[in-house]
User: What shape does this take?
Amino acid sequence: MAINTAGQKFFRELPPKQIAPLKAANLAPGTIPTSITRMEKPSASVAENHRPVPILTYHSLDDSGSVTSVAPADFVQHMRSLARRGFTGISLSELLDAWENKTTLPARPVVLTFDDGFANLLPHAAPLLSELKFRATLFVVSGRCGQTNDWPDQAPSIPRLPLLTWDELAQLAPLGWEIGAHTVTHRPLTSLSADEARREILESKTTIEQKLSRAVTTFAYPFGLMNAASRDCVRENFRAGCSVEFGTAAPPHDRSALPRLDVYYLRSPAIFNWFGTSAGGAYLVLRGAGRLLKTRLQGAPQ
Ligand SMILES: [Zn+2]
Assistant: This one.
């Protein structure tokens, strides 16, 4: 019973901070707590648009078994599991549009994000997402397109693999892939001066916009590392930034550092099938708590 309660809270219950805007939207008294726990079908209600939504983080789709890799065969099972259970993969901007009441969320939304822009997404993710009518957000390192992920501070255990070229990115964009920024060189922003960090953030945005002729409105911090100056820059120049803080995103969160769920914890297809269930929610709460404890003990993000 305790596990079910934790899981339901994690995935389905509305944070108290959201009640005020919902009341402002003139929802009937008493509808908020019950409707949030039962919402399974699409509707244009403000309450549905303001639900907490999981943002999944993928990096590379390869068979190396590294901490940033998901095997292509497992990824197929992840996506088919989502589709089978009524989830719809959406981009981060689509979530922001819904939070701003410009559009309506699908019945079971999940934001799909891919960091770094690995070339293996083209064969292993693009056709499958198109088939399932899922969309996604890809965070690109603008100074590395067509090169590899062999950047400073990259762990030795991470395989060095090709990154998408500008031509390949131009193929993805019309297929429903939002292209976001992930700095120019993937250096940790906290190791840079405020001016250098600002240049990394803004130049990545303008370069991608020029190369792909489309607006870049979302950002992800390399290694999840940020400070006040970098967050302020992201807040001023993007609709949202993604952190590696472990959790489900909700409208009250600071948009400059939305939490995500790293798929590392869900890589096994058997465990991924729990995603979106009460048991899966409890599992992620426990993994999140363990991750937080580990971070505090070691003094650095994992
Ligand atoms: Zn990255």
Remarks:
- The first helix runs from residue 2 to 12.
- The beta strands are 55-58, 60-61, 69-70, 87-90, 108-116, 136-140, 177-181, 218-220, 240-246, 258-262.
- Residues 115-116, 182, 186, 222 surround zinc ion (CB under 6 Å).
